[in-house]
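Quick start: read one record
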Amino acid sequence: MVKILITTLIMFFSMLSNAEVITYTDWEYNSSDEIDWIVTIDDESHADYFTFNIGIGSPLLTGDVLGFAFDTSADFALPADLVNFSPYDIGNYNTNSLNCGPGCNFNGATSDNFDHLMSIGQQGSGGDNVTTFSFGLLKGDLTLDENLFTRVGIRAQSVGDNCDNSSCDGSVKDISATSMSGSITDVPEPTTVILLGLTLLGLVSRKIS
């Protein structure tokens, strides 16, 4: 029984590195409105896609996301390689630019063009209010690491605090602080956790009987 238990634990820990997550939490702000953005990219949520999840961590300030941009060492073809996991429209795809559509740009925040840019949702306070969204990029034979996605940017408007009772008219063009701001984290595969649990349960039941 001890040998089986040891073998199971070895299998579990050997599979911890099968899923990766890059997290961006450090930002270069271009205004006094500092939103606590959290951007994650993982290779676990969807089998064929790298999944981007963008949202606000601690909503002391909130904002309506207008556009998203990223740099990559891979040759993605957008929109063909992109799948939208959110109810908001994604469009105005652009490459090697700072422009992601009407009112959506990173001019003044950086002089370095982004590899890929896109608009999110509708512009203006009368449209949708995008505070979180998700999309996927086709994996192909690529491996997720800190060199695959090196920089991300978020364009947002209607930024402020307590927007129900005050005007939120801030505007931000926030960019991840450095190309190394993404940290790799090992994530256990759900199937592995289930396998380990069932094995241990079987061992306990066997011992009791």
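Residues 179-183 have pLDDT under 50 and may be disordered.
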